[in-house]
Design goal:
alpha/beta, 2 domains, Elongation Factor Tu (Ef-tu), domain 3, 274 residues, binds flavin-adenine dinucleotide, 7-stranded mixed beta sheet, 7 helices, 6-stranded antiparallel beta sheet, Rossmann fold, binds FE2/S2 (inorganic) cluster
Amino acid sequence: MNPYLPEKATIAEIREETSGARPIKTFKVVLHNGHAFNQKPGQCAMVGILRVGESMISIASSPTQREYLEFSIMKLGKVTSALHACEAGETITLRGPYGNGFPIAAWKGKNIVTIGGGIGQAPLRPIVQYILDNRDDFEQFDIIYGARSVNDLCYKSELFELEKRNDLKVHLSIDTADPDWKRFVGFVPNNVLRIKPSPENTIAITCGPPIMIKYVIHNLLELGFSEQQIFTTLENRMKCGIGKCGRCNVGNFYVCKDGPVFNYATLKNLPEFD
Ligand SMILES: Cc1cc2nc3c(=O)[nH]c(=O)nc-3n(C[C@H](O)[C@H](O)[C@H](O)COP(=O)(O)OP(=O)(O)OC[C@H]3O[C@@H](n4cnc5c(N)ncnc54)[C@H](O)[C@@H]3O)c2cc1C
Ligand code: FES
């Protein structure tokens, strides 16, 4: 079978997450063939539009949800702008799932802290939903998430609902003050230092802009986390998505196949990461 042959899917629903110069929309899509994607949290798919192109996008819906897939997409260039111009009912294409995903089964019995910034909450959302669907398998669960402004926060209403639950803690932040914002104001790495998650039996997963990831990891190490307890994702430019074209390689790894999830103990030795 041709591995580049995509499946057709219908956009069932489009939600506007953020507005502004680089808006983010979440697309709920249903595969025409009715097959489940059987993805793991942290895996991605090549999302495409015929005669325009394809982009690698994290699957933002829970692996426990088999009827549809969700992708939260920031409007940047050719493909993502064409996707943003689509309406519900239109057909797009999907290839995947690709990548290694988070080793979430191995985290059973542990405390989990997810640390996201901006669109970086998209690959973390399936972890959140997976843990909520299997709540007894995990101990303390903290969601740390921030964006530049209230307008730039993804999944706002979902996160505000989660704040009301007593079986997890949600710590939201924005970078600059807003008169209506009563939560933390400051950068995500500073919020991590303020919250001080305990490294005891804990896994920390961080996704977001590279500068945020760098300082979050620095602060986690300062709090006593070991390199093995910290996971993140890389977003190198990709073309084939299946380890053939060499576009995404870093050190000895193809990010599309061996990543995008990396443990910091591995990542810190890669030439492009400091
Ligand atoms: C593993 C992985 C997961 C991703 N998950 C998501 C996601 O969940 N949501 C989302 O919105 N985006 C995600 N991306 C980024 C997404 O693939 C790119 O934004 C998209 O391919 C841009 O395509 P385009 O044709 O619209 O832009 P292009 O016309 O190709 O480029 C427009 C601008 O975006 C920059 N750009 C393109 N691709 C990337 C990239 N990978 N990293 C940084 N800058 C880039 C270009 O340098 C250029 O400045 C992910 C990327 C990877 C590799
Ligand atoms: S995108 Fe082609 S090898 Fe990774």
